[in-house]
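Dock zinc ion; give full complex structure.
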Amino acid sequence: MTNSPKRPVELSPEEWKKRLTPEQYQVARAKGTERAFTGEYWNSKTPGTYRCVCCGTPLFSSDTKFDSGTGWPSFWEPVEGSNVREVEDRSLTMRRTEVVCAACDAHLGHVFPDGPQPTGLRYCMNSASLRLDPDLPAATDESDGPDETDG
Ligand SMILES: [Zn+2]
């Protein structure tokens, strides 16, 4: 167990602007929402870990990604509950729960209680707040290899 203490990443808006694309900045730092079906990852099926675009904290695994039909990448569980923080969002009349990166406060999206089992949650994320770290292809971990019988 290497549970290093979380160190919040604090940068000025100017610093973030240098590190991020305008869209990433707008979503992750200014709490914007990308348009549905336009993001990089809503339809991605590449196995890997989705990290915070700002600070690299692992947030979601492709193992928990599901097709929600919303046009945003959706997950039923974070990689580690302590890596995300949930904040009550009263910015609209509708009450929603905002999800932010626990390390750097990047706006990620919202969580809704209408997801699939086992959690019943739907983490509706913005691609612009995520960076996919693809899994390396496993070298010899294929259980369905060719059935060869050498004489
Ligand atoms: Zn972060």
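Observed: The helical segments are 13-19, 22-29.
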